[in-house]
Amino acid sequence: MYTTEFEKQKKLVSTEDPEKLAAFEARVAADEFIEPKDWMPEAYRRTLTRQISQHAHSEIVGMLPEGNWISRAPSLRRKAILLAKVQDEAGHGLYLYSAAETLGTSRQEMIEALHSGKAKYSTIFNYPTLTWADIGAVGWLVDGAAIMNQVPLQRTSYGPYARAMVRVCKEESFHQRQGYEIMMVMCAGTADQKRMAQDALNRWWWPSLMMFGPSDAESVNSAQSAQWRIKLFSNDELRQRMVDQTVPQAEFLGLTVPDPDLKFNTDTGHYEFGAIDWSEFTNVLKGNGPCNKERLKTRVKAWDDGAWFREALVAYADKKAARAAA
Ligand code: BYC
Hints:
mainly alpha; two-stranded antiparallel ribbon; binds benzoyl coenzyme A
């Protein structure tokens, strides 16, 4: 499957005007931003539409596992913080849908692709948040992985995507800290609270590492995306950075990373870690994760339930326009 996809992309690129393609590639190589009205190869447009819309869907679906705890947060302070965080994710989804729209696909089309199961969103959001400690682990690990991936995207070659990432990264950095702070409080609490924190780490560790996507050898889109500076670091490079950054944080909390093969290599200065179970990743990607069906059903219902509101907005806008024209 991977080879076929890659070849399809290459074939599409080969049909482009060579002069325009060379000028485009020179601009990208010179680290210039490509803007919506600039000429771009069709494969570049498609890859970006795919990646940015998937990213937007992830932000929106990503509200669900955390939204699950808003009404059960352990204090008013925790509730206010979580509410603000979930609201930030909605904002990220909106900037990203807007950035993707500049490439010529409407928000309606993107949302239909999500609801029909055609478009992907991050596998990580198909896991359940079973206890309050999961909210800590999600902030620490999932937002931590998101920042690791998204900080370089501030310099990605497509201007609207890069600019959206600036604000997203600032907010994600606050999210990561609030998650880690929950973990710190739980790890300094009762034995039961510490057990909950360890249990959350055990369940979220491997899925968080899977967020970076398949290994470089299996990553169909990487070669072309790296050439066009859509991706500035490979999936494996970012995953390694995540492990190197997170293991000392787990040690500080007094928690054990659930990987018996994890060890620090003094020669390379990096942690070596055990094999990722890619069959789990593939299974979640195919729609068979613990919460895939529930997540999609919830999003479709939210969309359907909001139809009257969208209609009212359009009716109001039409009325205002008619009044202005009269
Ligand atoms: N989940 O060739 P590859 C967040 C797909 S965080 C689902 O390496 P690419 C948030 C991939 O799409 C999450 N699918 O692809 C945090 C491709 O399939 P298609 C969102 C995945 O694009 C906290 C196939 O596998 N972040 O937002 O070069 C709270 C082969 O992969 C996953 C982003 O989206 C996955 N984990 O690299 C709330 C960041 N991994 O599309 C929200 C931007 C891979 O060809 N995205 N696939 O059918 C990226 O940086 C890249 O798209 C990826 C994958 C690194 C994810």
